[in-house]
Write a structure and sequence with these properties.
Helices cover about 25% and strands about 40% of the residues. It is an alpha+beta fold and about 140 residues long. A 5-stranded antiparallel sheet has the order 1-8-3-5-6, with helices on one face. The chain has a 3-stranded antiparallel sheet with strand order 2-7-4. It is elongated and about 50 Å long. The N and C termini lie close together (about 5 Å).
């Protein structure tokens, strides 16, 4: 069984935004020649997340609204007491983003079937930026034969 890996870099927008990574992961898979196996996709940041779901504009807007209601940025969080912590001068008040990331996933595993991602008809791999704008990196590790 072989293992190949690559990175996806994403320049994100301010606030919460969602990016469909399906095509980029499919391109990395195609380069490997692996036809049966699995793809591990992993966020290397504490204020980002991944999910497999439908990439439909109104649903994605609903998700943004729901996350804001569930973990409001303006709420009181101890993590945002920056004056009580040793932080860089540009440290944002982003406790809400950390909490939202913990409620979602930081990794997804997708089966590889006949050289393709084994996703359902309406499934896409979605990357959630919860504290943008930033440049983010996502690890893609593909294993199989």
């Amino acid at each position: 069984m072989g293992i190949k890996q690559g990175w996806i870099e994403i320049a994100t927008e301010p606030g919460v935004n969602i990016h469909n990574l399906t095509g980029r992961v499919e391109a990395l898979l195609a380069e490997t020649g692996i036809t049966q196996g699995q793809v591990l996709v992993f966020c290397c940041h504490t204020t980002t997340a991944l999910a497999i779901n439908e990439d439909e504009v109104r649903l994605l807007e609903d998700l943004k609204v729901y996350l804001r209601q569930l973990v409001p940025p303006e709420a009181r969080y101890l993590h945002n007491d920056l004056h009580l912590r040793d932080v860089p001068p540009d440290e944002p008040m982003n406790a809400h983003a950390h909490i939202a990331a913990m409620l979602l996933h930081n990794s997804e595993i997708i089966p590889v079937v006949d050289g393709k991602l084994g996703l359902g008809t309406w499934q896409s791999l979605l990357f959630f930026e919860l504290d943008g704008p930033r440049t983010r990196r996502v690890l893609v590790q593909i294993s199989g034969e």
